[in-house]
Amino acid sequence: MDYFDLGSYRRRVTTPSADAQRAAETDPECCMAYWGILYAIGPNYNKSWPRYDPDDLQKTVKRAHATVQRGREARNAQPVERALIEAIAARFPLVDTILHDLTLLDLAYSKAMRCVYEKFSDIDVALLYVDAVMCFRSLKLWDLDTGKLTGSDVVEAKSILEAGLARPDGRNHPGFCHLYIHMMEMAPSPEKALAIADRLRRLVPDGSHMQHMATHIDIACGDYSRGIESNRDAVILDDKYFSRCEGSTLYRVYRCHNIHVLIYAAMMAGRSEDALKAAKHLQEILTPEFLSIKSPPVVDWAEYQYGMMAHVLIRFGHWEDILQLELPQDQELMSITTAMIRYARGVALSALGRIHETEAAKAEFEAARRAVPEKRQYGIACSVETVLQVPSQILEGELEYRKGNYKSAFVRLRKGILLEDNLPYVDPPVWLQPIRHALGALLLEQGHVEEATEVYKQDLGLSDNLPRRKPRINNVWALHGLHE
Fold first, then answer.
1. Domain boundaries of the chain, sorted by first residue
2. So which domain of life are we looking at (predicted)?
3. How far is the C-alpha of 84 from the C-alpha of 305, rounded, in Å?
4. What is the phi/psi pair of residue 374, to 5°?
5. Cα torsion through 84, 85, 87, 92, rounded to 10
């Protein structure tokens, strides 16, 4: 059982463990072994019920009901263990009547866990209740426009986390630190979690996801250098792990996420070498074979990340390199990447003043955008159709500007900014390259200094016209623009 000799509360993001499955076989009366299987196969903060494909959902539900029954039959279960089994049973639909709106199950589970929390004074039970609430309101804990928590249950969850972190047995609990970071990353004052983020880094130095998690707060506070370094540490740990075993599909997706965040932090810090290296690493992982896995549908979850190279090259003005990018051989499989390369070509040609070619590139981008399957996702919370409206406006604005139609260009870019600002919250942001950078630079070029200044202030969070968690705090590009 050396697999588990890693200390309390410490496991990688992976469920297929022969040792874990044998726990119930070794002791059929161990109720918590069955609970652990149920917790592992059920939804979590990053994989909600809607992200289960039909095959995955059917298999999960069938297995869950068999496991719940065995947990209920465990004769040696303590009262708290029986309560946890009954609560988690509420999380799964009936085998033959799967609900259309599965979020109702998340609500049922959170209510059931609240009852368990009220009955038993146990720090881990408290954490599981908080986790249930946060899964029900995944990525919607705060209203970004008002800066308020989205419900009384979230207010209670935040209070429980803060009370737990004030206790000796909670202060060094990775679970409390982890969930508090998720709780505060959307808050108008994410800096309140900086000390917790640093503590989590020290608590689990060999856990790649924990090293990465701390950077949700670093980046929210504009510390992009720390974001680069900790995600690089996470990537190194992942590489070590994958050098010894294949790892689960879900864990491989998490691996890509660490690199994705590294790319964003490097872009905002102006560190081109770090961003380019990470983008290449991401492409090495996202092979056609990996993207072709049907269940879970990896291509729908992760293909958009392959196109991050185009964003990096745009950010650092590598126009000629963009024009050398090759389109994917399988453009149906790599549909978002195809659209991103066509978009990047349009931006590059526009910057080089090649107007007629820009018009052709824009038409090719629009065709590629329409060819992306509706089920394809751009990040956890976004439909690709919504996201790809943003580059469409950017290309229109760029083209109008190069034609000398400055007023029309600025209207287009401001429309793109409105679309960008209303994209759902995720980390890193759905659209890596803020449109305000382009608008500010072009306004300055035309002598509109006051307007450009306001645009850069908005991007830095120095204006009252944009809620705190929508700007890109402390990014070098807006700082430089403001200086100019």
1. 1-138
2. Eukaryota
3. 38
4. -60, -30
5. 140
Residue 99 confidence (pLDDT): 66
Alpha-carbon gap, residue 444 to 453, rounded angstroms: 9
Q: Which residue has 């004074």 as its token pair?
A: 121
Residues 460 and 450: their CA atoms lie apart, in Å, by 15
Tell me how crowded residue 382 is: count the other CB atoms within 10 A of its CB.
18
pLDDT in tens, 293-339: 998 999 999 999 999 999 999 999 999 999 999 999 999 999 999 99
The radius of gyration of the chain's CA atoms, rounded to the nearest angstrom, is 24
Question: Within a 10 A sphere around the Cβ of 50, how many other Cβ atoms?
Answer: 11
Helix runs in 151-271, H state only: 152-165, 168-171, 174-184, 194-203, 208-220, 224-244, 249-269
Measured between alpha carbons, how far is residue 131 from residues 124, 135, 176, 325 in Å?
10, 6, 10, 43
- Phi/psi of residue 143, nearest 5 degrees: -90, 115
Examine the pLDDT at 19 and tell me if it is beyond 90: no
Distance, CA of 46 to CA of 43 (rounded, Å): 8
Long-range contacts of 410-416 (CB under 8 A, 24+ apart): 410/439, 410/442, 410/443, 413/438, 413/439, 413/442, 414/439, 416/390
Contact 442, 401 (CB under 8 A): yes
Contact 210, 203 (CB under 8 A): yes
User: Which residues are 97's β-sheet partners?
Assistant: 94
> Is the distance from CB of 35 to CB of 87 less than 8 angstroms?
no
Ordered DSSP codes for 263-317: HHHHHHHT-HHHHHHHHHHHHHHS-HHHHT-TTTTHHHHHHHHHTHHHHHHHHTT
pLDDT in tens, 367-386: 999 999 999 999 887 889 99
Burial of 359 (0-12, 13-18, 19+ CB in 10 A): middle
